[in-house]
Amino acid sequence: MTSRRTPNCILITGATGGIGGALAEVYAGVGVTLILQGRRAERLEGLAKRCQAAGASVVCQTLDIRDLEALHNWVTLVCHTLQPDLIIVAAGLNTSTGPTAEGEVWEQSQAVIDVNVLATIATVQAALPGMRLRKHGQIALLSSLAAWRGLPATPTYSASKAAIKAYGESLRDWLAPDDVKVNVIMPGYVESKMCFEMPGPKPLLWSADKAALRIRRGLAANQARISFPFPLNLGCWALGLMPHWMSSMILRRLGYSA
What is the CATH number of the domain that holds 56? Predict the structure, then answer.
């Protein structure tokens, strides 16, 4: 049977982003401890004050998660001292081939892989020993509907999100005997600075607050994949099943390719 116990201690990386910040406020309440990581100290402080006003206890950490060793050490310490029930890995970056499809910039692509993939793995591996020992815990990984079928304008981003989807699905089966839940979050377009910087159409755009509520419901139900919105999630899944020539034609007609 699936436990729907409300988590009392929640760690969120990327809390200064659109989805991460909205999730912090959705979970904030009396009796809840929030451990919030972000790069932007001023924005993190403002978020902490709002969460505290809702009754939550808040611990903030300003940290660039591209420093993988510092990230791993911090998560290890937090998981030993505060023992979070739920860890939401929401930090993410994006890059694209540019406004005239001139190509991706190597340094930006490297940063995307460092943040979206390596920092995710570092966070998970630091958290697992304690969760497995306690036979309790939940880890949510932020992928994307782009994991179903890579988008021509965002090759590195699409690859990073496909990697997280596969990683999370593998973890879920491996950790099930230890009663550690793993969920892959696969949103479509959600209002944020990163979203608006992405090229191409943005159909069925959701607010970050709406997305956060959907994610919270999915995590409470322990859904393996939390994908939204319908029918965009169905369309992206279908693109991944089609012959490549057919999905390419559809993406071109929808304005996702030159």
Answer: 3.40.50.720
Residue 2 included in any domain: no
Domain count of the fold of the chain: 1
Distance of alpha carbon 117 from alpha carbon 135, whole angstroms: 25
* 157 included as an active-site residue: yes
From the list 22, 29, 30, 27, the residue with the least C-alpha distance to 10 is 27
From the candidates 157, 167, 189, 256, which is the catalytic residue? 157
Q: Read off the pLDDT of residues 41-65 as tens digits, 9 standing for 90 and up.
A: 999 999 999 999 999 999 999 999 9
- Determine, yes or no, domain membership for 3: no
Tokens of residue 147, six digits: 């994991």
Q: CA 149, 106, 246: angle at the middle one, nearest 5?
A: 20
Q: Which domain holds residue 103?
A: 9-253
Which residue has better confidence, 258 or 150?
Answer: 150
In a domain, 99, yes or no: yes
Q: Which residues contact 69 (CB under 8 A, 6 or more apart)?
A: none
Which band of pLDDT confidence, cut at 50, 70 and 90, is reported for residue 192?
confident
Rounded to an integer, what distance in angstroms lies between the CA atom of residue 112 and that of residue 116?
A: 6
pLDDT in tens, 91-119: 999 999 988 889 999 999 999 999 999 99
CB contact burial 74-99 (16+ within 10 A = b; e otherwise): bbbebbeeebbbbbbbbbbbbbbbee
